[in-house]
Specification:
Elements lengths: L2 H7 L13 H11 L11 E6 L2 H18 L2 H4 L4 H9 L11 E7 L6 H18 L3 E4 L4 H4 L2 H6 L7 E9 L20
Antiparallel strand pairs: 1-2, 2-4, 3-4
Bound molecules: flavin mononucleotide (FMN).
Flavin mononucleotide binds next to strand 3.
């Protein structure tokens, strides 16, 4: 698939079939992630692949509770506050949308550019998933909890690791609608 087509066609996917993702495909996604540009070629990333649905259910509940208790003011007082509160308070809402797999990209240790490095790896992973006919979505709702000692324990992550990009992947139930983009704000200098 042409790169422009992948960039234009990728959409955050929130409805999945329960068809599993084959292990070789997960390896392909991780290989693409690892080709991302990264500061000083430190390659700080690690990949935790979670397919255990009971564990994802448990993580979802704990992440929702954590997010509700620690909601940043910009969310708690913003225009979508009510929407977030009702979503997070809904016991039927699973923040991973019952996707068959979540790939968590974490850095091995804190560092000045780990967020950028892991986010670029995540974008490679998501674009490659799309090129293979798969859907994906970054689940920021779970980041806060995963960065707590309890969150790391839940996934048996070493204490020094910094979870950055929790990406769900699966077969889309249907093609998600495109989310419009604003007109870019561009300043030309020279
Ligand atoms: C850092 C980050 C966190 C996100 N967290 C969530 C999330 O917790 N739940 C969710 O459904 N979508 C989440 N998204 C997906 C965004 O809502 C989505 O990318 C945005 O609405 C644009 O839509 P598109 O990806 O289809 O272009 C997140 C995206 C990013 C980059």
């Amino acid at each position: 698939m042409d790169i422009a087509e992948a960039i234009a066609g990728r959409r955050s996917t929130r409805e999945y079939t329960n068809q599993p993702i084959d292990e070789p495909i997960i390896h392909r996604l991780i290989e693409a992630a690892m080709l991302a540009p990264n500061a000083v070629n430190e390659q700080p990333w690690t990949f935790t692949v979670i397919r255990d649905q009971a564990l994802l259910d448990r993580l979802s509940g704990e992440a929702k509770a954590y997010m509700t208790a620690t909601m940043p003011p910009s969310m708690a007082n913003g225009p979508r506050a009510e929407h977030f509160r009702s979503m997070l308070g809904d016991p039927a809402f699973q923040i991973f949308y019952h996707a068959p797999v979540m790939v968590l990209i974490s850095a091995r240790a804190p560092g000045p550019w780990i967020i950028e490095d892991c986010a670029l790896a995540a974008e490679n992973l998501m674009l490659t998933a799309y090129s293979l006919g798969l859907g994906s979505c970054w689940i920021g709702f779970t980041q806060g909890f995963l960065n707590t000692p309890a969150g790391k324990r839940a996934l048996d992550l070493p204490n020094s690791w910094v979870p950055v990009a929790p990406i769900i992947v699966g077969h889309p139930r249907m093609a998600p609608a495109a989310v419009p983009r604003n007109t870019p704000e561009i300043r030309w200098i020279g």
